[in-house]
Amino acid sequence: MNSKTQNKIAIGGLYGIAGLVVLILLALLGYILASGVPQLSWHFLTAPGKAFLKGGGVGIQLYNSFYLLILAMLISFPIALGAAIYLYEYAKDNWVTTTIRTAIEILSSLPSVVVGLFGFLFFVVKLHLGFSILSGAFALTFFNLPLLTRSIEDSLRTISDVQREGGLALGLSRWETVTRVILPAAVPSILTGVILSAGRVFGEAAALIYTAGQSAPALDFTDWNPFNISSPLNPMRPAETLAVHIWKINSEGIMPDAKAISSGSSAVLVIAILLFNFAARYLGKRLYKRLTSA
Amino acid sequence: MKEEILTTQDLHLYYGDKEALKGINLNFDEKGITALIGPSGCGKSTYLRTLNRMNDLIPNVTITGTIKFKGDDLYAPSADTVQIRKEIGMVFQQPNPFPFSIYDNVIYGLRIAGEKDKEKLDAVVEKSLRQAAVWDEVKDHLHESALALSGGQQQRVCIARVLAVSPEIILLDEPTSALDPVSSSQIEATLLNLRHDYTIIIVTHNLQQASRIADRTAFFMNGELIEVDQTKNIFMNPANKQTEDYISGRFG
């Protein structure tokens, strides 16, 4: 067999594999969307759930998902940013840095159910935070931190060293170079990383089952005092998210339309994550364009 | 009488165990252009980067000897690298404008130093870009990204950026080697305009460039300074055999 034929076979094989992956993905997405989208309506997206009757919605779960996401991001982003800047811009290549990197590596490969159980024992039980949005947000921080740190570090890595030299040669201090030259230049790629990790956090269930809880008490959307138990802003209330909701109604849902609600919720989840991904691409590209051309 | 603004005495530099500079004694008068030439790996860029302490960024570098800028030891424990680099600016081989507008690039140093007066900033931008001979080409796009410019324009904006913080010395590390001949000659013209007001030290691979613009030329080889003299003498009548061999293209 000559090398030309080999080449053809190899390319054909690779096309086949890639095609298979795409096909599986499309089939999954198609199935979820086809069975879920018909369930969607304004009522479904905004109404509270019903435990025994049909016709419940996922309004509260959807809101909880976003609220939890925002809280988790507020906690994890500053930490991840600081860690990434330290690791990439300041840390010397020694055993301490290696240890930190390994720790991050291990943390990122922890199964999320382990993160969830740790969150349960530590935040819910030990710190008496109870099943609450706050416990959930902390658990998600653990889940998110390594991924986000890695992605921000990668963003910093894409900024060429000649930019750092340029800043320093201009009489900027190290810190000024990082904050005034490197970070602004890295913003598009950092933003993309943040939104993509938001997508992962948004779809996370296992880490939340034991921390944010599986119940979605009714919320009074006119009460914005965070200390009232029915206020949407209260971080100490239990809050079932969309992903947890899907898991729950599939395992123990007793409402007559459980199947439909599960399909609808899955579709909402998938669509939301798709939107995150598209937004990440779009915003990243736009910001980059604004920074690099007229 | 001209004064020596920068002096180096018995300068050694080691990358780990490897000695890259083997005792350089070289002084620079105020104003004018000095070119550093020599084959690749001869230490000329390394030497240049010791002059504003850019080698500090590389791990495992050891430097011995004395470098004095206006009589102050650059490597004294009390020396402030940030201040040094304001007075001794640097332009790199690869044009490295920040990914911001041309205007922002030029005033970056000043703005971070706390200058807020819009009129003053505007004036500095115009003056620096004029000095760098790029004003006419960019004056209508000051608020567009510097990355949209050609390589030669970017390099001149980088020169303007250095000029804006009013340094006394400008170091240039092969500033034209990534540029086409037309852009290169524009940069050379820019430097010739600046030689009356600044002390310019330029590393170049291009012997013709050195002969065209430099008042003085220093020839480096294998980490040693072989010869330094008026450019004319180096090219027409070198004192050292190695210099002559290099100039006449027998190696390098």
Explained architecture:
Chain B: InterPro entries: AAA+_ATPase (IPR003593), ABC_transporter-like_ATP-bd (IPR003439), ABC_transporter-like_CS (IPR017871), P-loop_NTPase (IPR027417), PstB-like (IPR005670). Chain B: Residues 6-247 form the ABC transporter domain. Chain B: Pfam families: ABC_tran (PF00005). Chain B: Keywords: ATP-binding, Nucleotide-binding, Phosphate transport, Transport. Chain B: This is Phosphate ABC transporter ATP-binding protein PstB. The complex is a heterodimer of chains A (294) and B (252). With 294 residues, chain A is mostly helical. Chain A has one domain (40-292): MetI-like fold. Helix content of chain A is 73%, strand content 0%. Chain A contains eleven helices and no strands. Chain A has helices spanning 3-36, 42-46, 59-90, 95-109, 112-126, 133-157, 161-169, 174-202, 206-209, 242-252, 258-292. In chain A, α6 (133-157) crosses α8 and α8 packs antiparallel against α11 (258-292). The longest helix of chain A is centred in the C-terminal third of the chain and has 35 residues, at 258-292. The model of chain A has no long low-confidence stretch (mean pLDDT 89). Chain B is an alpha/beta fold and 252 residues long. Chain B has a single domain, classed as P-loop containing nucleotide triphosphate hydrolases (Rossmann fold). Chain B is 36% helix and 27% strand. Chain B is built from ten helices and ten strands. In chain B, a hairpin with a 2-residue loop joins β9 and β10 (224-230). In chain B, α3 (102-112) runs parallel beside α6 and α6 runs parallel beside α7 (181-194). The chains are: A mainly alpha (294), B alpha/beta (252). Chain A binds chain B through residues 92-93, 160, 162-173, 176, 180-181, 184-185, 291-294, and chain B through 52, 54, 57, 59, 82-87, 89-90, 92, 94, 96-100, 108-109, 112-113, 141, 144-145, 147-148, 158, 161-162, 165.
